[in-house]
């Protein structure tokens, strides 16, 4: 049962307390908060990744909201903030766990597990939104299904039939109606056999390796179920089938047990001609079993449709596009960072906040082309401010400009500062190094842009 993980996790928590490293690589994809249970979806030529939100120093999966990040280049991730929370569902009381968003009927449906307060059991709710970025509202006012099992995933087949699957310890499915918020027939179990899901080697008393986190999709006529296996620690395995309901054939391990998290959770997607495998681990400082972080690897399917085995890396997926610095960019578009946070901005969207002397943000693949002449940023400060230093290629690389930020009279009192820039040409990684001599936070940043004049 998923409850067993609570006791096993103490070991992982102790290990994670030793993690005092400060390195920020491209994996995990988010450094400002702990994220878990990735659910990628492509919409309008952009890759969105919905995540859970682990709380710092947790001793259980006591999450309260769901987050969204998106990218157009697999390197720079835009923070969209909270898109749904336990407060969205009046009947929910705890455990904002692994969900998935699918698009249909010109709407977006967010299937997510949480505790049904009245029964104390895990139940699956449905959030709905007209836009992918939310906010999502409760589509039903009550759970869609409830049997104390979790981790919903949805497949919409080519014939239009949608299937909701969820799991742990069993694997359930039900046929969703066209409206995506009701179903036909009764929930039924997919039989878990060793031939279908592999033999178990973990500690729990189950026959097959199947544990939780099914991610069901169809590719080139083959149905895939990628899932968290064994417990605990989990690895990631997969099965394939000629149909949405089986018969499933076990195909092997996608990612062995790695990283300082006793759970893992798959999300698989094709984007701009590449295939990506999303997962989570405990790689951020202070990370562990209850403080996880989402990461991604690029992979290539074998000719027979099989998925190659992958390892967790800190380098992540290669960047596949460049960024135009002459268009206004949100400050919360981040490839790597240290120290900073994000918050809701009074001018819309989010801003970057909690900036201290020495903190930084990295943005990758910035295409300066023939050269930038100036830089502008939208900033606010309730203290004496500081400086935004602009460095190329590394945190201490060539300094191309420095923008001074002074007090604006409040953390949400915004003004635009501009400074001159030199020697910024070509495609370069850009580091915003934040400096200042005052104590406490220096300033907030809402957006930035370079100018050719
Ligand atoms: O994040 C809470 C639970 O941990 C998820 O629902 C499972 O898949 C596991 O990752």
From TrEMBL:
Stretches assigned to the CBM6 domain: 327-451
Name of the protein described by the UniProt record: Carbohydrate binding module
Record-annotated site: Important for catalytic activity, responsible for pKa modulation of the active site Glu and correct orientation of both the proton donor and substrate: 151
Entry annotation: catalytic residues: 37 (proton acceptor), 212 (proton donor)
Keywords for the protein's UniProt record, in alphabetical order: Carbohydrate metabolism, Glycosidase, Hydrolase, Signal
Nucleotide-binding among keywords: no
InterPro entries the UniProt entry points to: CBM6 (IPR005084), Cellulose-bd_IV (IPR006584), Galactose-bd-like_sf (IPR008979), Glyco_hydro_43 (IPR006710), Glyco_hydro_beta-prop_sf (IPR023296), Glycosyl_Hydrlase_43_Enz (IPR052176)
Presence of keyword Metal-binding: no
Pfam families: CBM_6 (PF03422), Glyco_hydro_43 (PF04616)
CDD domains from the UniProt entry: CBM6_xylanase-like, GH43_Xsa43E-like
Family classification: Belongs to the glycosyl hydrolase 43 family.
Molecular functions (GO terms): carbohydrate binding; hydrolase activity, hydrolyzing O-glycosyl compounds
Superkingdom of the source species: Eukaryota
Annotated signal sequence range: 1-25
Example GO BP: carbohydrate metabolic process
Gene3D superfamilies with a match to the protein in the record: Galactose-binding domain-like, Glycosyl hydrolase domain, family 43
The organism of origin for this protein: Trichoderma gamsii
């Amino acid at each position: 049962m998923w409850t067993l993980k609570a006791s096993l996790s103490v070991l992982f928590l102790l290990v994670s307390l030793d993690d005092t490293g400060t390195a920020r690589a491209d994996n995990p994809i988010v450094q400002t908060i702990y994220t878990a249970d990735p659910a990628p979806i492509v919409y309008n030529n952009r890759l969105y990744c919905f995540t859970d939100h682990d709380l710092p120093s947790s001793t259980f999966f006591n999450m309260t909201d769901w987050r969204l990040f998106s990218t157009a280049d697999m390197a720079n991730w835009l923070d969209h903030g909270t898109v749904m929370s336990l407060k969205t569902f009046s009947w929910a009381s705890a455990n904002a766990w692994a969900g998935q968003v699918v698009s249909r009927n010109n709407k977006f449906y967010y299937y997510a597990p949480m505790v049904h307060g009245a029964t104390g059991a895990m139940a699956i709710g449905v959030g709905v939104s007209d836009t992918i970025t939310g906010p999502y509202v409760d589509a039903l006012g009550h759970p869609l299904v409830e049997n104390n099992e979790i981790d919903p995933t949805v497949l919409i087949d080519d014939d239009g039939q949608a299937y909701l699957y969820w799991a742990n310890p069993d694997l359930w499915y039900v046929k969703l109606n066209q409206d995506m918020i009701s179903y036909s027939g009764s929930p039924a179990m997919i039989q878990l056999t060793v031939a279908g899901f592999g033999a178990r080697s973990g500690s729990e008393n189950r026959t097959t390796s199947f544990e939780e986190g099914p991610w069901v999709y169809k590719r080139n006529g083959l149905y895939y179920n990628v899932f968290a296996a064994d417990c605990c620690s989990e690895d990631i395995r997969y099965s394939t089938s000629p149909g949405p309901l089986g018969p499933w054939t076990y195909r092997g391990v996608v990612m062995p047990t790695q990283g300082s998290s006793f759970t893992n959770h798959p999300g698989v997607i094709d984007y701009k001609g590449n295939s990506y495998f999303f997962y989570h681990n405990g790689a951020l400082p202070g990370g562990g079993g209850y403080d996880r972080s989402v990461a991604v690897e690029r992979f290539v399917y074998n000719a027979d449709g099989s998925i190659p085995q992958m390892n967790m890396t800190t380098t992540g997926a290669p960047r596949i596009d460049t960024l135009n610095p002459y268009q206004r960019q949100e400050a919360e578009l981040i490839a790597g960072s240290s120290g900073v946070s994000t918050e809701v901005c009074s001018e819309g969207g989010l801003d970057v906040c909690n900036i201290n002397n020495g903190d930084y943000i990295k943005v990758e693949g910035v295409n300066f082309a023939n050269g930038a002449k100036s830089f502008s940023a939208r900033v606010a400060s309730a203290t004496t401010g500081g400086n935004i230093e602009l460095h190329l290629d590394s945190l201490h690389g060539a300094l191309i400009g420095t923008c001074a930020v002074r007090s604006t009279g409040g953390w949400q009192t915004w003004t635009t500062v501009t400074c001159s820039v030199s020697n910024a040409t070509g495609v370069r990684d850009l580091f915003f190094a934040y400096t200042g001599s005052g104590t406490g936070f220096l300033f907030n940043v809402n957006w930035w842009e370079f100018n050719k004049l």
